[in-house]
Amino acid sequence: xxxxxxxxxxxxxxxxxxxxxxxxxxSPEVEQSAEQQTAEQxxxxxxxxxxxGNAAIPNAGGTNVPxxxxxxxxxxxxxxxxxxxxxxxxxxxTGGRIDDLTLIxxxxxxxxxxxxxxxxxxxxxxxxxxxxxxxxxxxxASTKLPNAETVWSTxxxxxxxxxxxxxxxxxxxGVIFTRKISVDSKFLFTIEQSVQNNGSSDVTLFPYGLISxxxxxxxxxxxxLHEGPIGVFNETLEELDYDDxxxxxxxxxxxxGGWIGITDKFWxxxxxxxxxxxxxxxxxxxxxxxxxxxxYIGSEGLVVKSGESASVSNQLYAGAKEVDVLxxxxxxxxxxxxxxxxxxxxxxxxxxxxxxxxxFINSQIGNLGLAILALTVVIKIILLPLAHKSYVSMxxxxxxxxxxxxxxxxxGDDKQKLNQEMMALYKREKANPAAGCLPILIQIPIFFALxxxxxxxxxxxxxxxYGWITDLSAPDPTTIFNLFGLIPWAPPEFLMIxxxxxxxxxxxxxxxKFNPQPADPVQAKIFLLMPIFFTFLLASFPAGLVxxxxxxxxxxxxxxxxxxxxxxxxxxxxxxSTS
Length: 579
Description:
Helices cover 34% and strands 25% of the residues. It is α+β, with helices and mostly antiparallel strands. It folds into two domains: 34-140 and 162-343, Beta-galactosidase, Chain A, domain 5 (Distorted Sandwich), CATH 2.70.98.90; 352-566, no CATH class. It is elongated and about 105 Å long. It starts with a helix and ends in a 13-residue tail after the last helix.
């Protein structure tokens, strides 16, 4: 009765551990295109709201009902096309907003002919998401400023890395505003705003930038990955969840240098103020229309004297979170900790080196699946001395199992005497029962770091392997419950147990056979169930991660087999020595 009670308790604890493990290591959500998501938002009506400075930043307004499709909205205003090696889109001459961007190198599906990822969409479409730059004034000033309804003039026909877009607007009061928008070959926009004051009095202006997004997008929903408002202020990373911002309403920050924006799993829109000047930033949510806004305003006003001109220059990152690109901008432009836009996690010191190692091997091999296999071998070689010592200890324990069983039969009713004799046996044979756990303890942070690399970076997204694995970032699409596609039936999600998870479960079972078996029969039964539990658990994991886990098990089995053979111990624990 006591054994049954212990067994049920052990099963319950194992399930709790597995469920917790699944929470810590979630499977990636299937990405949805903008057309597949629920419509959130409509037209914009700019209205000034208090900012953290001496001036007011326009805050997007609107209703909760989209007025027309994205494509229809884009035809309603005059636009200048954006055409770079990395971006397609347009700038609206009404408002001068950067509100139409798609990413050329990234598609919504594995199919290379599927639509490009849509990053920005204009106000009035189902999912408004855009960047805006402009000027604000101190309270009480009356100079007419450009706003969301301003129609700008230009002679340009296209914005490319070689041809910037110059917008001009005369306020009719002697002040002429110029906005020069440049873009490089990747994802960096430079916005230079100039003011020519031909009026009779001085003008004081505060430059601002904002990113506005309507509605909460589809997110992974797990704490290991941040998606939402983000920024770095005074060398400190600040991350806010959408739900937290809804509850708090507004959060003000101040900094010299840094950046502020909104991040998705793979995409980023970030405002990059002048790194040598102080600014006041804000994370804001407006309940009406469910609008999120991140913005900044210069702490010091720009005084433009009568008859003179002045200008400021700021930048916008709008694109994919490519590690090399973010690192280059951080170093070249001096953007403080821009690399933290990628959520490297707690094991940063492992995660980023693993990323670069995997990227390098992939560049040499040309297949990310093979690169994962090769990296696993490299990690095994690095850990070889420590793992070898542990496997030797495990082999000694396995060799001692017949003696341990005899002691259990002899002193089974005297727990204290049994423990004494066991410890004496370990000491006599120089065996350490805890040493066998060391490879697993070492593997956990490495597994977590590799998981972070494969989960939060673009390295594995839509990368094929061989055969039926066309996307390493997605779970194995096959299942044993329809004979891997031979039966025309789509099982429920929890029964999607593909070939890779089955191979992983088999490798885990075989590895257990090489390990010393628990003396407690209840523990032994639990260990037998673990490969089944992990087979179901890893079925929802990215195929690339399951490949790593399986291959790691295979290498461990080979290493244990070699050590056991050299020490004259069979898989069953019997001595194979002829001496």
